[in-house]
Amino acid sequence: MALGGFSTTGDECPLPLGAELIAPTSSAWRLGTTPVRTLTADGGARRVHLLGWCGATDAHMSALVNRPVPTDVAWRWPGNYAVVEENSDNVVLHTDPVSAFPLYCVPWRSGWAWSTSARLLAALAGSGPDAQRLACAVLTPSVPALAAGRSFFTNVEQVAPGCRTELPRIGTAPRRINLWRPDPEVSRLAHRHLRHTLAGSVTLRTEADPRLSSDLSGGLDSTSVAVLAADSLPAPHRLNAVTIHPEGNHGGADLRYARLTAASNGRIVHHLLPMNARHLPYTFITSVPPTDEPAPSTLTQARLRGQFRWMRDHLGTRTHLTGDGGDSVLFQPAAHLADLIRHRHLGRAASEAFGWARLRRTPVTSLLRDAVAMARTGRHAALTGLAGHLVGQNIGNRSGGHWFPLLPLPDWAEPAAVRCVVDAFREAATHPDPLAGLDASVRIAMDEIREVARTAVADAELAASCGVDLHNPFLDPTVVNAVLTNPLERRPAVHAYKPLLVRAVGDLLPPEVAARTTKGGFDADHYAGMRANLDDLAVLTDGHLVGLGLIEPRRLRSQLRRAAAGIPMSLATFEQALTAEAWLVAHHREPAPAWTTQPVRSAP
User: Fold this and answer.
1) Does 139 reside within a domain?
2) What are the φ/ψ torsions at residue 187 (nearest 5 degrees)?
3) Which parts of 470-552 fold into alpha helices (H)?
4) How far apart are alpha carbons 462 and 526 in whole angstroms?
5) Beta strand pairing status for 175-178 and 104-108?
6) CB 101: neighbour CB atoms within 10 A?
7) Are residue 414 and residue 451 in the same domain, yes or no?
8) Do 48 and 69 meet the contact criterion of CB atoms below 8 Å apart?
9) Is the separation of the CB atoms in 332 and 483 below 8 Å?
10) Is the peptide bond before 434 cis (omega within 30 degrees of 0)?
11) Residues 456-469, buried b or exposed e (16+ Cβ, 10 A)?
12) In a domain, 146, yes or no
């Protein structure tokens, strides 16, 4: 499913094979069933398209076409969506600030092509995978700032989030104006605003599909979404809530909390879905469909797609809700301590540092020293400094690591890959920051949220391959904005476990669930999956990434064998390499999307 168009108009504009025009004489097209609403101004000189899931009413839409589009249009209503204006001399893209509904663009003839699909635009432009972007994804996954504006295909740009971007009809570069800043809003309480926006985001989906389902993992995030969904469903519908668990294990904490929630809410129908050896991590990871970028759930795709297929076949699920994104939105970055110091809240900084030190079992003096150093270091200085330290292989230097914590460079990273990362740091340091002046914790959270939201689209593509439309309400811009605009004085302590969410929806949760401070996992399954799929994974160590000159296969294979043997080590970059390789396998396995200039009918 994809949407797109051109800054030019006329019969010369091609279409992806199988797509249809959104409206007669428009250059905008739709492939699949993504929601689109279109209005045309009197005289037909201007159209406004609302793309994606959005809570705007018909009255809201009418106002858009007959007057200037409001600056906050892309985060004014629940949902994740974009707004596109088609004018006689340009196309204007209004992008959501979170990247939950990303748009991409590429030069085409004398103008521009735009789309929700980077892969479709790459096929139009004849572009292949971007080696620098892949190197950053593998070696610096903890630095999403390096991905800003860059897709996984050469020459295909991501349109800047939270911006008004003009794509001229002929010849010139796009013109961008950043419209969104999560500046503090002292006039409203964040927990009440979070309750209102999260409930609105969930209700948008339940009203559109009352037969939807939801995760119910037992954690705070999915439980909050599930109870809001159950309470907002119109009668007589009840929510199908699904809890996955290891086969034969019915005693885990997550399952107990999920059962407590289901028992406390009469509108939830609880389903247990056991996972067995067929669903182990690393199983058939190259079977993923081609996506715009490597999907975060690639290594666990057998479990994920197994769940989607089961829900589709047994529950009739077409729409599914998750609590994904809640961690990124709700957890307070450690940079919060630096913000407290910079704003001279020294007593609170010391108090929270002691709490954080107890939780992490680390000396409080080192936390405070790091916070002071970060308070004195700007974002651009950190990017510039880390580029220099990478060249010298001194990645432990602390001048930029507070802003952008780097993972150790693995010995299988080729010099060309390191050069790609250094170049990316230098490029990022030269670009003006559209969100300059924000507190460091807010700026860092924004980078991470955008990374999580954009990559979640690739997971949604995995779900779509199983016939399920995947939604993450925590990543709606209205929800993110409610949290990030909380003033420093009211932000939770860095060591607290999601107190804002508990205050927002705690009255809907069983007390035991609201009091949770941990969450479960499948770590044992992770290593079992690696051992079970060792031969298949070994093949991936000498593939497309090697062909791009980014990794040394013998050393990567050695790390794989040591990891499968249970030798303790960091697996972050290793897993990123396998994920990227699986994405490249899928990309090269499938034919490039086809485009056609044959006439097609318009969408009804």
Assistant:
1) no
2) -80, -10
3) 477-484, 499-505, 511-514, 523-532, 534-540, 544-547
4) 20
5) unpaired
6) 26
7) no
8) yes
9) no
10) no
11) bbbbbbbbbbbebb
12) no
Full residue range of the structural domain in which residue 434 is found: 336-438
pLDDT single digits (tens) 121-138: 999 999 999 999 999 999
Q: Which helix (H) or strand (E) holds 283?
A: none
The type of residue at 177 is I
510 close to 261: Cβ distance less than 8 angstroms: yes
Q: 344: exposed, middle or buried (C-beta count within 10 Å: 0-12, 13-18, 19+)?
A: exposed
- The domain that holds 195 is classified in CATH as 3.40.50.620
Burial 240-279 (b: 16+ CB within 10 A, else e): bbbbbbeeeeeeeebbebbbbbbeebebbebbebebeeeb
Give the ranges where 431-522 is alpha helix by DSSP (H).
440-464, 477-484, 499-505, 511-514
State how far the alpha carbon of 349 is from the alpha carbons of 201, 305, 336, 461, in Å. Answer: 34, 44, 9, 42
Q: Are 480 and 198 in contact (CB under 8 A)?
A: no
CA distances (Å), origin 447, targets 119, 325, 457, 485 = 23, 13, 16, 15
2-6 and 29-31: which strand pairing?
A: antiparallel
- Please give the share of the chain, as a percent, with pLDDT higher than 90: 84
N- to C-terminal Cα separation, the chain: 17
pLDDT in tens, 224-282: 999 999 999 999 999 999 999 988 887 776 899 999 999 999 999 999 999 999 999 99
Please choose, from the candidates 274, 203, 206, 197, the residue with its C-alpha nearest in 3D space to the C-alpha of residue 240. Answer: 206
Structure tokens at 278: 């067929």
Q: Do 463 and 317 meet the contact criterion of CB atoms below 8 Å apart? A: no
Are residues 173 and 32 part of one domain? Answer: yes
Count of domains observed in the chain: 4
Query: Is it the case that residue 475 has pLDDT exceeding 90?
Result: yes
Q: Are residues 424 and 564 in the same domain?
A: no
Contact status, residue 133 vs residue 152, Cβ threshold 8 Å: yes
